[in-house]
Amino acid sequence: MIDMHTHILYGVDDGAKDVEETLRMLQVAKEEGITDIIATSHADHPQYHVDFMTVNMQVAQLQNEANDIGIRIHTGQEVRIQSDLMERFKNGEVLTLANSQYLLLELPSSNVPQYTKNIVYSLLEEGITPIIAHPERNKGIAEKPERLERLVREGALAQVTAGSLSGHFGKSVQQLALQLVEANLVHTYGSDAHNLTTRPFLFNAGLDYLEKKKQLDAIDVLLENNDRILSNDRMLVLEPCELKKKKWWSFF
Questions:
Q1: For residue 179, what is the domain's CATH number?
Q2: To 5 degrees, how large is the angle CA 164–CA 198–CA 68?
Q3: pTM of the model
Q4: Helix, strand, or coil here: 162?
Q5: What is the CA angle 75-167-153, rounded to 5?
Q6: Residues 6 or more apart in contact with residue 213 via CB below 8 angstroms
Q7: Cβ(167)–Cβ(136) under 8 Å?
Q8: pLDDT the model gives residue 244
Q9: Domain of 39?
């Protein structure tokens, strides 16, 4: 299995603090059945910016020890949306996921910026498909989920987080995550693991929750699409369904 969203690199953002913690995380990932990890350190975040050279260098440094554990590490970034994103992308300063056509795009936690649609269009014109990170934890989408639906219908994809589905971020986030799965508004699955205590993998726990909710087809699609990142193939995208009407804003 492939975990396409992790903060496995050490000493660069709010993920692993040192190499020992990184190696412990890799061991736990292996125990969860994960074979491949994409390292998606924060880029252009208000508090953290891990440049592409640092990511490339540390992934290369860790690969031998990761191979001994039985894990392959791939390069990537969790790129915070900024108005100058396209300029930086064209300058070769932004990493896609495992050198594929897919880019992990992070929105601010409180809203969906007005220029998001323009960034999505611009990336698509360059042959890059943005995958919106953890939309179930975005307050603007929670208040009005059709904001995500519009972006998906325009060509963006989205990633749901294992911890959200397992209940790690609370019942409200868990309910919204499930609703987005049911509505075909999320397409890939990642742990967003930062450490082994406050932000662990919970990879199987999230899948177990989906199985409990009888979302077996969704599990297959999410894991298959994770595979398609590494093979750089076109993803399985189902037609979005009507969202169940809820007072989403009451969840936050």
A1: 3.20.20.140
A2: 95
A3: 0.94
A4: helix
A5: 60
A6: 178
A7: no
A8: 61
A9: 2-251
